[in-house]
Fold this protein.
Amino acid sequence: MARETRLATDNLIAPLFVTEGIGVRQEIASMPDQFRFSVDVLVEEVATLHKLGIPAVALFPKIADALKDPLASEGRNPEGLYPRAIQTIKKHVPEMMVITDVALDPFSSDGHDGLVMNGQVLNDETLDVMTQMAVVQATAGADIIAPSDMMDGRVGTIRAALDAHGYTDVAILSYAAKYASAFYGPFRDALDSAPRQRDDIPADKQTYQMQPANVREALREVTLDLDEGADMVMVKPAVAYLDVIFRVKALCDVPVAAYHVSGEYAMLKAAAQQGWLDERAAATETLTAIRRAGADLILTYFAKPMAQWLREE
Ligand code: PBG
């Protein structure tokens, strides 16, 4: 009766990794209980999540090294793994909303979210590539396009391209305040997408992702994305940035998402495996705190177990 914050299954979005092959269910070493699924197994997993009441999945592709190049060409291949995965989910579990990721890193031999040239990540040239990726994803059936790259101007450019191709009903969830965080490590293991060591450019994303010390800048990023047509905005990571979620929620009237990222998941899982924390209690408290800070939606690798725990309550 006195509870101020509710955590429900329909607040949860499950991130999922997809890989080539048949019958593949490969556990990710740094993310216990998370897997790279081939498309056939992925569809079964999505059907299970749908039965549990989870409204959306966020898909990430693990691309073979041989298909990666500096232009991230595979990200624009309409027959590639990613569009095939989207199509198959929408065919077999049409009610599940599919959120797709727009950024170059899974497809790029440089491992950066943008095009790399002369020791720089190029902002405007990247926009062109990203809009093509977004159109391929929308054509495959994506319901929500989520640009995760932090290039300036991409929300407006992607919105215009989607509209021009007739995808006026495809929404944009912008990774608006995405920090250059140490907590993405396990995710980069999962996709083998870490920025590559090169002489001319640092192997981190600090020139385009935000520095952890800033919060006013986050509000500016959110304002820009809303002006460009974002339908929802995201703060990422979540637990180390609860104040940012709170401030963003106060600033805007669109749904606010928070990404409880791979490193935040891995810490809880590792401690639980050691017997140092009670996994269910710690995960429930963490996700409730993210809701309390103001997140309407939470992308979390705990989506499936949390949905099961909520059923048992
Ligand atoms: C890449 C992307 C990243 C994540 C989602 N999309 C990693 C990065 O920016 O390097 C991280 C998610 C997680 O850690 O769970 N565009």
About this structure: The chain has one domain: 9-312. The mean pLDDT is 96. Residues 39 and 85 are 6 Å apart (CA to CA). The pocket of PBG is lined by residues 101, 103, 105, 113, 148-149, 184, 187-188, 205, 261-262 (CB under 6 Å).
